[in-house]
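An instance noted here:
***
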Amino acid sequence: MYIRHLSLTNFRNYGRLELNLEPGVTIFHGDNAQGKTNLLEAVFYLATSRSPQVEQDSQLINWTADESGEPVIVGRLVARLESSDGAHQVEIRLIKEQGSFRREALVDQRKVRLMDLLGNLRAVLFLPQDMQIITGPPVDRRRYMDITLCQVDQLYCRHLSMYNKVLEQRNALLRQIGETGSGRDLLPVYTDKLVHLGSQLLWRRARFMAGVARFAQRIHYESLTEQNEVLRLGYLPHLEAGNGKLNNGDDEESGDSLLVLSEWLEQTGSSSLVEKRFMRAIAAATEIDIQRGRTTLGPHRDDWKFWVNGRDLRHFGSRGQQRSAMLALKLAEIHWITEQTGDTPIILLDEVMSELDNRRRTLLLNTVQQVPQALMTSTDLNMFEAPFIQKATTITIAKGQARPDRQIT
């Protein structure tokens, strides 16, 4: 999979950009704050409908256009691409008018739901702040799982969207029951929906994490640590409560019990078995849920962790060990998506070379040169060896303008 042409209108610092791209490696280079990262953000946004930089999509609209006073402002991102099933065009429009904001998605010039845009363009993004996936809160790790899975499995994404809506409704009802005592007759309706959808998510996440873990363990052991360190990724599903208290996986005993659940989820051949087990657990937690006014079990509480040689990487790993684990995870993600779809995703690397030592840098650049397309940013081309630069396409980015250093056909 690769992008042949990228078009941006009123996106970030780009008023208008028309950029031809080639297969292989492209390096966007220039000073800071010129728009290099914005190009990678645009591609990732077209792949996932999410920005890695901002929470509010309206912030993506070009600042000058946003302040122009025009009644309607339209930001437009378009990619023409080649994949295993032929040529396609994906597009997202950001429309701001009269104090409102909406998004529109198009595939091959036909309007579709945003959810149906996913999977047409696939990308794996490397950022300096990726370490937050290891060291940050569980919500960051759940977000990573969801973004990756949604690029591959549209049914998972639909289930996730519906689950979040039902969860919000069930939580509102739990608060009502706790405050007024009314509404208990409706609780089974929302519980049944939540359990059905949540079971699908739990089952799919367990299989995803097991698949990614196999790739990551091999890459980490064979290529990054000279067979000295064993990396383990463990999914911690919040399918059950344990020992009379909520199981959060922070202590060794609860972590082990969650890993046992994860293994059971992966090996279970039917999501209906997961649904039965989840229903028993959530029924047993009903009174706790009412007391707390929220649903205490389910995939919205999930987490996953890294261990190196049996030690929790978040608490006991060095910075170097964390970098190696994160690189192994991202490279594993590429392999997993390729295995699942038959298409290798586009690799996006934002100023990550300076974060890596020679061993990690060599592994990453070797991978980059083997994929159909990789888009990189750098403030300094001198950090790349001359043979790598000679094979790459280099494009200078300055003040929201892109200038190829040599002709792109």
About this structure: The mean pLDDT is 90.
